[in-house]
Amino acid sequence: MLTAITRQVSPTINQCELSFHARQPIEVAKAIAQHEAYQQCLAELGVHIVSLPAEPDLPDAVFVEDPAVVVEEVAVISVMGAPSRRPEAKSLAHALSRYRPIRFLTEPATLDGGDVMRIGRTVFVGSSKRTNREGIAQLSDILRPYDYQVNPVAVTGCLHLKSACSYVGNNTILINRVWIDARPLLTFELIDVPEEEPAAANAVLVKDVVVLPQSFPHTRALLELRGFRVTTIDVSELQKAEAGVTCTSLIFDDLGTQASLPASLS
Ligand code: GLY
After folding, report:
1. Ligand 1 proximity of 17 Cβ (cutoff 6 Å)
2. Which CATH number is 220's domain given?
3. What is the pLDDT of residues 79-127, one digit of tens each?
4. Closest approach atom of ligand 1 to CA 247
5. Which atom, in ligand 1's list, is nearest to the CA of 159?
6. Residue 265: inside a domain, yes or no?
7. Number of domains in the chain
8. Strands, E, within 55-104: which ranges?
9. If DSSP codes are grouped into helix, strand and coil, which group holds residue 182?
10. The whole model's pTM is what?
11. How far is the CA of 125 from the centre of ligand 1 (A)?
12. 203-226: b or e for each residue (b if 16 or more CB lie within 10 Å)?
């Protein structure tokens, strides 16, 4: 069954990390309501939600995509690029250990899950402010025995690789080529986001439905014109925390196997 780990919005989200965005006040109650609606949207698409409690001392902890990379065979717990976010990993590893064997990246590696876009057995990883060469190399070493090929992609104009591109199904990537070096992705069909919606390339594909922020109507129209099924949600408060729609969930198949809990997590 398709499962999404999520985490409740931290009451301290106004202290979140920001890299490419100017700080704006976030209405916490509204962010919580939008996050609820996001979970509801996933649930209506048939995803089982596993919601973790908020981490009051970790402003960015709602962005559960970043501390881990999950494939069918294993969950890889990362060393996140922002030191303030590293304590988010422990409780997430604990939650993931119910579903997958756990592996760990180690320093000097850094890697954020937002930099990882998987398409089948190919894993594109952004070389970004948050993810370094050692992080990409360690992830590649862990995934290679399972027959995944890891390919780096240079990220220059935004926080994460998936701020600038997302797989939307049908061999197609939604993309903002201004923010990344698109050359490693040219074997796919590329749909360029409209110039007036540069942040619209972050989308979540759930089964055959593309989930997109409500603030990108032109991108929605473009996708629908190309035959994609699209649903939109309002995530305006979370967008102020430099978020999109991928980063607030970690979606994977619950394969029904009970992985053993590493001693370090028990
Ligand atoms: N505010 C999300 C991040 O910087 O990781």
Report:
1. yes
2. 3.75.10.10
3. 999 999 999 999 999 999 999 999 999 999 999 999 999 999 999 999 9
4. 2
5. 4
6. no
7. 1
8. 68-70, 75-77, 102-104
9. coil
10. 0.96
11. 17
12. bbbbeebbbbbebbeebbebbeee
Residue whose C-alpha is closest to residue 114's, from 152, 161, 75: 161
Residue with tokens 């996140």: 80
- Which domain range does residue 50 map to? 2-253
* Residue 247 known to be catalytic: yes
Structure tokens at 207: 């089964």
Distance of CA 260 from the midpoint of ligand 1 (Å): 30
* 107: in domain: yes
Measured CA to CA, the distance from residue 115 to residue 128 in angstroms comes to 8
Note whether residue 96 is domain-resident.
Answer: yes
Catalytic option among 41, 158, 160, 165:
160
What is d(CA 5, CA 51) in angstroms, rounded to the nearest whole number?
6
Q: What contacts 263, CB < 8 A, 6 or more positions away?
A: none
Q: Known catalytic residue: 158?
A: no
| 62 C-beta closer than 6 A to ligand 1 | no
The CA 243 to ligand 1 mean position distance, Å, reads: 7
Predicted confidence at residue 92, as pLDDT, reads 98
Atom of ligand 1 nearest to the CA of 241: 1
The residue nearest atom 3 of ligand 1, judged by CA position, is 17
263 within some domain: no
Task: Output the CA 111–ligand 1 centroid distance in Å.
Answer: 13
Backbone phi and psi for residue 146, each to the nearest 5 degrees, phi listed first: -95, 10
